[in-house]
Structures are given as structure tokens and as C-alpha cells.
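Need the bound structure for zinc ion, inputs here:
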Amino acid sequence: MKIDTSIVLQPIGYVRSALTSLDDYLPPGQPAWIDIRPEYQEALERIEDNSHLWALLWFHKSDRQLLKTIPRRFNPDLPEYGVFGLRSPNRPNPIALTLVRLEAVEGNSLRVAGLDAIDGTPVLDIKSYYEQDIVFSPVTPYIRANDETMRRNHFYKLAMNHHQEACADLLMAVRMVLVADQYMGHINRSDLRVAVTGSSCVADTIQGLSRARLANPPRFSFNESEDMPISVWTDRDSTLKITARRRLDQNGYSNWSDRDLFHIEYMKV
Ligand SMILES: [Zn+2]
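Answer from helper R.:
Posting the output first, comments after.
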């Protein structure tokens, strides 16, 4: 007798979003909603005690035959990866795991930030995001987007997850890290050190993005200063010094070039 091992799930709700294609990004700061079905509303009791939630989604438009893939959305020149080592939407069971920030509970709808799922995506479950879920400096595949806007949005999202306020110095730090990523490659690697001079907001954001710890291995150092921020990135064969020329606001963040914003010195040892 053949045993049926299939699993039947009912969505607990659906995503409501301006996003209609996974090839796009929601602009930073634009919320999305998870509409919970009325029969599950009781399961939202005290959910507002959480700042962040894991959402488990069903990517209903995925290719379920795919076992290996190139993350083309980011960069068509990358090698192939097995889908279990990636967050690719295409996989045998297209369950998506995404971390969202809970902004408000509006009846049986959750207004959230950071939800990269298209309008109408079924939601399978929602869970608390706990402190024990956090590993400060994990080792991850280096998947670098070709597209500048995509890279900028990616680092902005990581920076907000870490620093939790969109202050001017967070914007400065994101732009600095984008330069470092361009010259030095994967900024999370264990042999890359970074020394920051500037405000504690610049330092905190750069530390969050580079995942550079103070010890084991010692990768991060900081001098608090009210002068223009400087970050110096060093590995075995090169040094990159990025000095801010001017203060930054939202307009400058979006429009100024690296050369407008920074004095960049790159030296091969
Ligand atoms: Zn700040």
C-alpha cells in the first residue's frame, strides 16, 4: 500500500502590496500589509508586543522543478547554486521565509515594512522573531547585485534592520559601504578590517553592514569625532580610505555621485 505523505495547508492570510513582480523592489519606507483571514483573528492577540516577525509565505508563481539556479535577479554572471543554499523563490516547496518589521495592527491586517512579496501571495504562518534568532556575523554566499539601485536598496534594508532609524548618518554609512563593496568585494569576510572615525550612528551602521566584530577576529575599531566621517578598510593586499567631503541628506543620498560625496584613496600594498 502506498502511504500518502502529502501535506495540506490553508493560507492564514494574503499579502496586500503595491509590488506586482519579484523583479521589482518596494521603495524603501513603503509598507505592505498582511491581511489575516477573519477566522484566525484571535491568533493576533498581543502580536503588537513584537517589533519584528517571521512571515512564512507560499510563492505560488514559483517553478517547483528547479533544484539548481543562478541568482540572475542579482547578477547573471554568478555560478550555479543548489536552491537549498539560497533564498531563491523557485524550489520544490516554494515556502518563503521573510523578516518583517511590524508597524501597526489595523483590525485583522498587519502593516509591515520589509516584505518582498507580490500582491496576493498566500501567507502560511507568522512567528515571533526572537533574540536567539540573531547571529551577528554569519557566513553567507556572496551574491552581489549588478544593479546599483538594487545594491543600494539591499544595503539600506540591512542598515535599517541594524540601526533602526533612518538618520542622516545611516545614509552616509550606506553610501560609504557601497564604495567599500565596490573596491574591496565581500565586506563581511573575516580578513577585512574597518576603522571608523565619526559619529556613533555612522560607526554603528558600518559595523552592522560589515558584521565586523571588535574581537574574535578583531575587525572593527572606532574613534568618535564630530569631524567629517572617515572609514578605512584594510585587507592583506589593499587599503581603501573613504573620507566624506560633505554632510548628507535624503536628496544627496539619492543624487550625489561617489565623487561628489567622498574623497576615495585606494592603495594596493
Ligand atoms: Zn542614527
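Comments: Helices lie at 148-163, 168-184, 200-210, 250-255, 258-261. Residues 13-59+94-133 form a domain with the Elongation Factor Tu (Ef-tu); domain 3 fold (CATH 2.40.30.70).
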